[in-house]
Design goal:
Blueprint (H helix, E strand, L loop, with lengths): L1 H9 L6 H19 L15 E8 L9 E3 L9 H4 L6 E6 L4 E9 L7 E5 L10 E7 L6 E6 L6 E8 L9 E9 L7 E9 L5 E7 L4 H4 L12 E2 L7 E12 L7 E9 L1 H14 L14 E2 L2 E15 L1
Parallel strand pairs: 1-16
Antiparallel strand pairs: 1-2, 3-4, 3-6, 4-5, 6-7, 7-15, 8-9, 9-13, 10-11, 10-12, 10-14, 11-13, 14-16
Helix pairs in contact: 1-2
């Protein structure tokens, strides 16, 4: 940028109007950049480190590991992925009457004792409709707590899969339709998963949306996307229908013989947490920063509940 500006003032070399205009443009840019420099002092509030947890009670997963982390100031230099683990926490999950249903113990990784997870001492399957409380305490931290009521089971009324004309057990696509009755008189929140099973019922692959249905099924389809949370605020007459062209992929092992549809009825706090997380992760340059939704008292994270209904379709 400096050579054209020097040439402009030295009177040398600018033999055309284009070069002259280019020199003026460089000069204006240099002046503008110089005028943009300004130091701004930002006051950063003091931060008290707090415990953080993200854990979901799931009727389909009675023994899940848990990770307990901590928060830190934005100016702190610690790498929380490496150094944010809290290894001396006490953890319990209790019913509404106070009886402890599950407790956890920290187990380090075999190849790195500084990392690990909290493993449950016993298996525990939460019951739909019951209240549960998660409590976590650790030295030098304020104890945290999260509460929830497990959602009711929502049965899948009907499912169908119409494969495309050309397909094979390892790579195929088609139209998947799932219908279930949405409980009336309350706001409900859901998530749909689809995976492929072999003739022994073992997972061998997954499905994904083909996004080819916008002009076929209309407005309703836009409300539901596989693997993402959605609510029933738009549902008509207590019935929700998912219709979508899906594709599939397998790991190349045994061929798929069934599609397994998993309907998750989730708590409102888990729905809000997942939605706020999606807003962070979406590639939207105009999205404003926001805090992740949390239902953890005195801490950060989320304690969610998932009640699962499964349905299998023979291929």
């Amino acid at each position: 940028m400096l050579p054209p500006v020097f040439t402009l003032f030295s009177g040398k070399g600018l033999k055309s109007p284009v070069s002259f205009k280019r020199g003026l443009g460089c000069l204006a840019l240099a002046v503008a950049l110089a005028g943009c420099e300004k130091e701004v002092d930002i006051e950063v509030r003091g931060h008290t480190p707090r415990l953080a947890v993200q854990y979901n009670l799931n009727t389909d997963s009675p023994k899940q590991n848990m990770y307990i982390g901590r928060s830190q100031s934005v100016l702190a230099g610690d790498n929380l992925w490496r150094n944010g683990l809290v290894k001396d926490a006490s953890i319990t999950i209790s019913e509404g009457n106070g009886s402890v249903r599950q407790s956890f113990v920290f187990v380090p990784l075999e190849y790195n004792a500084e990392q690990g997870n909290y493993k449950p001492l016993t298996a525990f399957t939460p019951e739909p409709g019951r209240e549960y409380t998660l409590r976590v305490s650790a030295p030098n931290f304020e104890a945290i707590e999260g509460k929830l009521t497990m959602p009711t089971a929502v049965p899948v009324v009907s499912t169908s899969f119409q494969p495309d004309a050309k397909h094979d057990p390892y790579n195929f696509s088609g139209l998947l339709r799932v219908q279930f009755n949405d409980p009336v008189g309350q706001r409900n929140y859901y998530r749909l998963f689809v995976q492929l099973l072999d003739d022994q019922g073992r997972p061998v692959g997954n499905a994904y949306s083909r996004n080819e249905n916008d002009d076929i099924f209309g407005e309703e389809v836009e409300k539901i996307e596989l693997y993402k949370v959605f609510d029933d605020g738009w549902a008509n007459q207590g019935v929700i229908t998912f219709s979508d062209k899906i594709g599939t992929y397998t790991g190349g092992g045994a061929p798929a013989t069934q599609l397994e549809v998993t309907l998750q009825h989730i708590t409102s706090d888990l729905y809000l947490y997942e939605r706020s997380k999606d807003n962070y992760e979406e590639d939207n340059p105009f999205a404003e920063p926001l805090n992740l939704h949390s239902n953890i008292r005195n801490g950060y994270g989320n304690f969610g509940g998932i009640t699962v209904t499964k349905y299998r379709i023979n291929l």
